[in-house]
Recover the amino acids of this structure.
């Protein structure tokens, strides 16, 4: 006569199996995407669904993958200069920026973004927009997986190919076509800086018709690109003594 497992024991065993399976599948997805260009992202799918739900008849999502060696070196440099100057040296999280953001919130000042490019890549590729603790926890999890599995160049390559750079325009390939009518390999430092300048709100700001704010931010990004030492900064070894964020 065989003894049946109590229902609670069977439930816990099932939950453990599901958890292990999900962890294995999520790591496998990250591993595969180290080598295979993602054909879409969670944020792109969310935008498609939003357009369908809200009846945006004229909406057309634009996205075109461009390999690293076919993109102007000023593009990844501009994104690092504008978004995450410590990117070559941290392991996914900028704890100094997180602390500064917490201090600003405690003092009632305007909240500053503290997400690194690695975190933004994890969110854009696998998750959804929002500020819930669940999403932030999953973002941290995927950030760790990405940092452990991908080299820094791959993180930047994926980021600049899936970041939203205009309303429904994702990645440097589609943005270069839409805004500058030239291949991304020919983008100048000024054009790259303008693309990076719209990242705080790409549905409001436009790289081809910049407002005074966007142009001012682009000028600042271009100055930072020069102060960081140009594209060679992304191959640097020692950490920078000081980085600035606007």
């Amino acid at each position: 006569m065989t003894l049946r497992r109590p229902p609670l024991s069977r439930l816990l065993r099932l939950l453990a199996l599901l958890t292990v399976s999900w962890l294995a599948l999520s790591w496998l997805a990250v591993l595969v995407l180290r080598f295979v260009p993602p054909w879409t992202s969670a944020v792109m799918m969310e935008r498609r669904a939003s357009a369908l739900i809200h009846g945006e008849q004229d909406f057309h999502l634009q996205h075109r993958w461009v390999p690293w060696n076919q993109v102007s070196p000023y593009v990844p440099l501009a994104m690092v200069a504008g978004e995450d100057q410590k990117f070559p040296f941290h392991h996914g999280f900028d704890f100094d920026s997180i602390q500064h953001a917490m201090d600003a919130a405690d003092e009632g000042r305007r909240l500053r973004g503290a997400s690194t490019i690695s975190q933004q890549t994890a969110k854009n590729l696998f998750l959804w927009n929002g500020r819930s603790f669940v999403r932030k926890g999953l973002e941290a999890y995927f950030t760790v997986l990405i940092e452990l599995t991908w080299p820094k160049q791959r993180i930047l390559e994926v980021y600049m190919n899936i970041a939203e750079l205009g309303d429904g325009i994702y990645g440097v390939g589609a943005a270069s076509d839409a805004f500058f009518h030239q291949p991304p390999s020919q983008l100048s430092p000024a054009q790259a800086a303008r693309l990076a300048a719209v990242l705080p709100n790409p549905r409001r700001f436009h790289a081809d018709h910049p407002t005074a704010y966007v142009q001012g931010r682009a000028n600042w990004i271009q100055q930072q690109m020069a102060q960081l030492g140009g594209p060679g900064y992304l191959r640097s070894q020692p950490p920078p003594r000081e980085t600035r964020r606007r």
